[in-house]
Amino acid sequence: MVWQRGMELVVDCYDLARQLPAYEQHILTPQLLRAAISVPANIAEGHGRLAKGDYVRHLGIARGSLAELTTLMMITTEVGLLPADRLSRPHSLADETGRMLTALMRKLGTRRLTP
Questions:
Q1: Alpha helices of the chain — where are they, by DSSP H?
Q2: Average pLDDT, stretch 31-52?
Q3: Mean pLDDT across the stretch 4-26?
């Protein structure tokens, strides 16, 4: 389920990237897409390793990428590249994905989490 939310977020971020000005195609756009893609990719990689420790570590990396992505989305509105209302759904998906990652990490037994 968390992987699916991450994939939805990637699709939304591709839509956002298409709306960014052409001059951002070499600056913000690649970083935004890399961070978005990293979320479900790390969830999948960790799950595929079949070791609990590796899975938890990759979930943590996914959370870090999600924090980076959230910051990049905020930057797009702060500098006037996209209106805040355009980021409502991606922000909502990011929040939900973050909560799901935290819950999964707790379920797997990590103790270092603070929401």
A1: 2-19, 28-48, 52-78, 88-108
A2: 96
A3: 96
Note down the domain range covering 75. Answer: 2-108
Distance CA 10, CA 15 (A): 9
CB atoms within 10 A of CB 84: 12
Report whether pLDDT(40) > 70.
yes
| CATH number for the domain that contains residue 16 | 1.20.1440.60
pLDDT for res 111 = 52
Cα–Cα distances in angstroms (integers) from residue 76 to residues 44, 73, 110, 114, in the given order = 28, 5, 33, 27
Q: Tokens 């990590």 correspond to what residue?
A: 110
